[in-house]
From TrEMBL:
GO CC field: ATP-binding cassette (ABC) transporter complex, substrate-binding subunit-containing
Domain ABC transporter: 4-224
Annotated source species: Micromonospora avicenniae
Coiled coil, from the record: none
UniProt-recorded name of the protein: Multiple sugar transport system ATP-binding protein/multiple sugar transport system ATP-binding protein
Single annotated GO MF: ATP binding
Keywords assigned by UniProt, alphabetized: ATP-binding, Cell membrane, Membrane, Nucleotide-binding, Sugar transport, Translocase, Transport
Keyword Cell membrane applies: yes
Length: 224
């Protein structure tokens, strides 16, 4: 479940070529890390997989299905944004319940699932707070818990640790890895931090100016 295939993807913004003929396969259950300098096309790949943007050419298959053929509410993809994108006027619990309510999950069932996801990410005692009453690391966990509740077959993480300070980044990296091992959900993770790419991905794809230069296990990519 959750195999991704990118075929000959191209995307330009005006004169800027963001992606130039990108082919990539992510295996079901794998964590693939996209690494490369700022502007190399990493976020564009995530947005295309999420269906938040369309390619100019090529196609994206998730479990063999062309993403553009699947209506948004049927896409089993959850994206965690760099700035977490939490609703500031809702409590942590409200943030977790929001998507479940939209999907018309019964209140008691939604409550049970939200609390269970919060426990899993160690934020069970923050449910009554508002996002601005929590730390950066806690907000990161709220965003992950909310993504968890979508029960995705694919996680897309856009620099999920970038806004954390170094010690927290290190601790959260370990948690992220444990969560991935535990869930076994296909994950595409974007970073420009080489240490993160070394430790977080089963495989690493190195992007440069809209092209994939290398794909392989971290040791292999960084030994060359
Ligand atoms: P990365 O995530 O590696 O930093 P991006 O995928 O965000 O790179 O961007 C790739 C290139 O496409 C950059 O040159 C960026 O400026 C450009 N780009 C991305 N999104 C847009 C957009 N919505 N409008 C204009 N240019 C964009
Ligand atoms: P739900 O989360 O239950 O789908 P939302 O109102 O939050 O309800 O989302 C509406 C639509 O926006 C979703 O069907 C989905 O396509 C898209 N969407 C929302 N959140 C995300 C996310 N984290 N990653 C990717 N797509 C999302």
């Amino acid at each position: 479940h959750g195999a991704i295939r990118l075929e000959s993807l191209t995307r330009s913004y005006g004169r800027v070529v963001a992606l130039d003929d990108v082919d990539l396969e992510v295996r079901a259950g794998e964590m693939m890390t996209l690494v490369g300098p700022s502007g190399s096309g990493k976020s564009t790949i995530l947005r295309l997989i999420a269906g938040l943007d369309r390619p100019d050419g090529g196609r994206i298959l998730v479990d063999g299905q062309d993403v553009s053929q699947v209506p948004p509410h049927r896409r089993a993809v959850a994206m965690v944004f760099q700035d977490f994108a939490l609703y500031p006027h809702l409590t942590v619990l409200g943030n977790l319940l929001f998507g479940l309510r939209v999907r018309r999950v019964r209140r008691d069932e939604a409550d049970r699932r939200a609390r269970s996801a919060a426990e899993r990410l160690g934020i069970g005692d923050l449910l009554d707070r508002y996002p601005d009453q929590t730390s950066g690391g806690q907000r990161q966990r709220i965003a992950l818990a909310r993504a968890l509740l979508r029960e995705p077959t694919v996680y897309l993480l856009d620099e999920p640790l970038a806004s954390l300070d170094a010690p927290l980044r290190f601790a959260t990296r370990a948690d992220l890895l444990a969560l991935h091992r535990d869930l076994g959900t296909t994950t595409v993770h974007v970073t420009h931090d080489q240490a993160e790419a070394m430790t977080l991905g089963d495989r690493v794809a190195v992007l440069d100016r809209g092209r994939i230069r290398q794909v392989g296990p971290p040791q292999q990519v960084y030994d060359e």
